[in-house]
Amino acid sequence: MKILIGTRNPGKLREYEALLAGLNLTFLSLRDVDAGDDIPEPYETFAENAELKAREYAKRTGMVTLADDSGLVVDALGGRPGVYSARYAPGTDADRYTKLLGELTGVPADQRTARFVCAAALASADGTILDLQIGTVEGQIALAPGAGSNGFGFDPVFIPNGYTVTLNALTMDEKNAIDHRGNALRQLIPTLRRIA
Prior knowledge:
Blueprint: E1 2-5, H1 10-19, E2 26-29, H2 46-61, E3 65-74, H3 93-103, E4 113-123, E5 129-141, E6 158-160, H4 172-178, H5 180-195
Parallel strand pairs: 1-2, 1-3
Antiparallel strand pairs: 3-4, 4-5, 5-6
């Protein structure tokens, strides 16, 4: 069975494939189908944005669709960047995490608490939401980017609780075992098995 993943991000698609391996599903991204323009993320919650994307991409393509909205919530910044994580600063991922580090200048390590949040929604081919799950991973923002290449977005500046290195320095298996997207997707597996 083919499942559309509501992303154009190849890094995110690789994570989905790794996390949901063994389900006898074939995953396609928005790069593989004609799904039209990207769905905007107008809501203030990850869950509402994820449901909107899953529902609309499913209706446009007639495919079962799995979409998520995820981001970084930093306590010292009042929850920012939150649902605006991907739009936090123009340019590259490095531009975004550099802005974040700049805004946290002078904030001591014990006050740099943060979490990644992922809401993952699964929609049937007609756009009906079949399941919605939320996953998180708690940690803190590093003082500087960490070395490593297994990640994207804010991974280079996020140290998960229980670790001394940033997310991008972990192996893909280590990262997938603890991260927010993995936590959300694992909760969706029973529903995916049921429809497969």
